[in-house]
Specification:
Layout lengths: L1 E3 L7 E7 L2 H11 L6 E3 L6 E8 L3 E17 L3 E14 L6 E2 L6 E2 L5 E17 H8 L3 E2 L14 H21 L4 H17 L5 E2 L10 H12 L7 H8 L3 H12 L3 H19 L7 H7 L5 H12 L3 H6 L1
Antiparallel strand pairs: 1-2, 2-4, 3-5, 4-5, 5-9, 6-7, 6-8, 6-9, 10-11
Length: 320
């Protein structure tokens, strides 16, 4: 039997609890698009609690269970950072598996289904809206609309402290000022900035002077390339969208980004292939089909470019 969490904090967006395995699966799997979940007691005293506060841009949650839970998860439209304060946990079981250590944040795989396993745990989670993360990323990176982080490196102690400090400040802002306040809005952005300290964002840093007024049309061209990367484009198309001559466009790209517009477009498409390969279920897609979708038809040349860019062959990415 499940019940609302009677002691839920003010402003809770979700609060459930119970003491049976069926209720846990129904309550928790529904929040994470779970399809094949299994839960069992570790002794006679089985229970679970889950509560979250915040809004649709950022929420801070706590998940607890005296029991065992395993299942699949699909996180869509969000970036989720979580850590355990107690218990045992594995994330992305059988692929890029992470064995959780108390107090060390781990990033859920983004926009693909993965397996997780938890036992007798106390877990904290921060859910960040995808658009919020991309908006903050645009302060420092050339954002192409895709989300990617290097999850292979363990965060430093300093980065973890900065992350937890920013989350604590956000919780205080929510409690004291409310979800409609400027303090809460700015605290959300600070949490995202600290996320970039935990895990390297897989985007190119903005070159010096990129945000200056003289590069307004260049930025317009870059935005056009990101929005239309899946379409047939010519240099003239890009120049027209940026209200520049072809020569001025070429010079602007070369001067500021050190490459041609079409080379930049190829890099954007290569990144899209990588993201599609990461998101694909092994055995349900082919490298050739995904590469062709983004305009890569010469598989040998494409594989070489992909290896230089991502440090592995595309088939290796697909099999993870």
């Amino acid at each position: 039997m499940t019940n609302p969490e009677t002691s839920a904090p003010t402003g809770a967006i979700v609060a459930v609890s119970g003491n049976d395995t069926g209720g846990a699966i129904q309550d928790l799997a529904g929040m994470y698009a779970g399809r094949t979940w299994y839960s069992s007691p570790v002794d006679r005293d089985y229970w679970y609690k889950y509560v979250g506060v915040g809004d649709d841009r950022m929420s801070i949650r706590r998940s607890q269970m005296h029991g065992y839970l395993r299942g699949d998860v699909a996180v869509e439209g969000e970036v989720v950072v979580q850590w355990i304060d107690a218990g045992r946990a594995r994330v992305d079981v059988g692929r890029d598996e992470v064995r959780m250590e108390p107090g060390v944040p781990a990033l859920f795989p983004i926009e693909r289904r993965f397996e997780m396993e938890y036992e007798d745990w106390d877990q904290r989670l921060v859910h960040l809206d995808r658009d919020l993360v991309l908006d903050v990323a645009a302060e420092r990176y050339l954002v192409d609309g895709t989300l990617g982080f290097d999850r292979s490196v363990t965060p430093t102690d300093a980065a973890v402290q900065a992350w937890r400090g920013s989350v604590a400040v956000a919780v205080r802002a929510l409690r004291t000022e409310g979800s409609a306040s400027l303090a809460w809005n700015e605290a959300q952005r600070d949490v995202v900035r600290s996320l970039f300290g935990l895990y390297r964002f897989q985007g190119e840093a903005q070159p010096d002077g990129y945000g200056e007024r003289r590069n307004t049309r260049l930025r317009k061209a870059v935005e056009f390339l990101h929005e239309h990367a899946g379409e047939p484009l010519t240099v003239s198309d890009i120049a027209r969208a940026a209200d520049l001559s072809v020569r001025a466009l070429q010079e602007s790209f070369q001067r500021t980004l050190d490459r041609t517009p079409m080379n930049y477009l190829r890099e954007v498409r290569l990144r899209q292939v990588h993201d599609d390969l990461v998101a694909a279920e092994p055995g349900t897609a082919s490298v050739a089909d995904i590469a062709s979708r983004w305009g890569f038809t010469h598989m040998g040349r494409f594989s070489g470019e992909y290896l230089r860019r991502f440090g592995e062959y595309p088939r290796q990415t697909l099999r993870k």
